[in-house]
Amino acid sequence: MMLRSIAIALCLLALTACGHMPWSKKAAGPPQPVQELTITGADGAPAGAFPQYWKRNTLVVDLQAASGNGSVTLTPRASAKWPVRIALRVRPGTVGLLEVQADQRMILPVTQTGDKPVDLELVPGVYTQSSPQMVVRWEPARAPSQ
After folding, report:
1. Is the N end or the C end of the chain the one with fewer CB atoms within 10 Å?
2. CA 73 – CA 38 distance, rounded (Å)
3. Residue 141 has what pLDDT?
4. Average pLDDT, integer, range 25-47
5. Cα–Cα distance between 141 and 96 in angstroms, integer?
6. 135/101 Cα distance (integer angstroms)
7. Which helix (H) or strand (E) holds 102?
8. Three-state SS string across 47-68, please?
9. How far apart are the first and last CA of the chain?
10. Beta 86-90 vs 58-62: how paired, if at all?
11. CA-to-CA separations, 10 to 1, 18, 24, in angstroms, rounded
């Protein structure tokens, strides 16, 4: 009887430990979209094709839908401040160059190789908390000159 009680106790212990094993953890789901910045197109209409996500403490503005030539204007929501860190997510091969204009101008070349999106983080000083807006322009990759 004692041996049977020990065997049952060990089985119960093993079953409860299974919930803490690495293979029992669920994979992280897709990032949840947020609305930290107001994004408008060149015509002033809301540009809903560019979702925003938090990646740790960086706000990622997803520009994967951008191609050819274009631009958007980013502004903080009413009575909100700029996030401390902002990154722009692009897919290699869809655009060749990003230009960011706020307090300072920043040119970001986009790699043309690869199949995964890349996050290009803006350096400190490009925008400040007093920046009224940020304009992001993109253009296609140029053919190499010979």
Report:
1. C
2. 8
3. 79
4. 86
5. 4
6. 5
7. none
8. CCCCCEEEECCEEEEECCCCCC
9. 88
10. parallel
11. 14, 13, 20
Q: Quick one: tokens of 102?
A: 């706020």
Structure tokens at 28: 């992280």
Q: Would the pLDDT of 7 be above 90?
A: no
Angstrom distance (rounded) from CA 12 to CA 19: 12
Query: How many whole angstroms separate alpha carbon 57 and alpha carbon 94?
Result: 26
As a whole number of angstroms, the distance between CA 114 and CA 100 comes to: 23
What's residue 20's pLDDT? 64
Please state, in angstroms and rounded to a whole number, the distance separating the CA atoms of residues 92 and 111.
Answer: 6
What is the pLDDT at residue 118?
95
**Which structure tokens are listed for 3?**
């041996």
Q: Taking residues 93-120, what's their average pLDDT?
A: 94
